[in-house]
Amino acid sequence: MFLWNGELVSEEEIQVSYNDRGYYFGDGVYEVFRIYRGQLFEKQAHMKRLYQSMHLVRIHVPWDEEALAAKLDELAADFGNGDGYLYLQITRGAAPRTHTIPDQIDPVMLGYCEPYASPISQIKQGIPAMTTEDIRWHQCNIKSLNLLPNTLARQQAKEAGAEEAIFIREGMVTEGSASNLFIVTGGVIRTHPADRLILEGITRQVIERIAEEEGIPFENTACSQDELMAADEVFLTSTTREITPVISIDNQPIGSGTPGPVTRQLQEAFNRFKLVFDRKNILSIQ
Ligand code: PMP
């Protein structure tokens, strides 16, 4: 089933207008929720970010957070008990093409679930990454459909044999093309502050909580490209990649060139966090 403008429908019932502003301008926002054993992981945090994105681009939906969250639960229930992700996007709606925002326009919402499993070997062994110039706008905190710089960067990485592109803005590391980036130096975790130059990842929020519980110092300060290359450990986080070690950047090994101890400690803590989430849901279902 698909979630289409607030209703669960079959694929045949979905009709997107050629006048949809998502199609013309990328005028819309989206979220990717992880589903572990049929349950939406960190649902409230994703909902909050979605409504914040809509607020910042001035898209108004007729559903409040709670009503929409209930619809997403229905969609996830239809998906079953497996592992996967839920993709949700909301465009401003359809109207004859004009740059200004039409007065009367109804947003268009599409959601669906797909089976998905984490890339275990990458999470265990780590990945090569490359750096590239951050050519994006100054509102990267909005999870907007405008992903052309991100897709071009990822393609560039792929062609260089790397698994992620790391954005560099004026000599400073911002984030990955679809992930947040962290360095570990002298036992301290550092990542770019959650300002308008990065998307504040939901996984990033979990990492900050976990680091505190584990007693690992965590700093919200940007690092330079030189500090990145000289770090003891580098890792990235996202809903689909969880915590993935970065073992080389631009063909230079990072630290020992293998996943480091702080990254592995966080991975173990993250797995325990998921288990607690699982148990909570099993208890709430019973
Ligand atoms: N930054 C960017 C640019 C992203 O696309 C993503 C993936 N959505 C992230 C960071 C990580 O966010 P999350 O942990 O919520 O998946």
From TrEMBL:
This is D-alanine aminotransferase. Coiled coil: none annotated. It is an enzyme of class 2 (transferase). Homodimer. Acts on the D-isomers of alanine, leucine, aspartate, glutamate, aminobutyrate, norvaline and asparagine. The enzyme transfers an amino group from a substrate D-amino acid to the pyridoxal phosphate cofactor to form pyridoxamine and an alpha-keto acid in the first half-reaction. Keywords: Aminotransferase, Pyridoxal phosphate, Transferase. It comes from the Bacteria. Signal peptide: none annotated. Belongs to the class-IV pyridoxal-phosphate-dependent aminotransferase family. The keyword Electron transport does not apply. It holds the Pfam family Aminotran_4. It catalyses: D-alanine + 2-oxoglutarate = D-glutamate + pyruvate. Its EC number is 2.6.1.21. GO terms for molecular function: D-alanine-2-oxoglutarate aminotransferase activity. PANTHER family: AMINO-ACID AMINOTRANSFERASE (PTHR42743), D-ALANINE AMINOTRANSFERASE (PTHR42743:SF10). Its cofactor is pyridoxal 5'-phosphate. It comes from Paenibacillus spongiae.
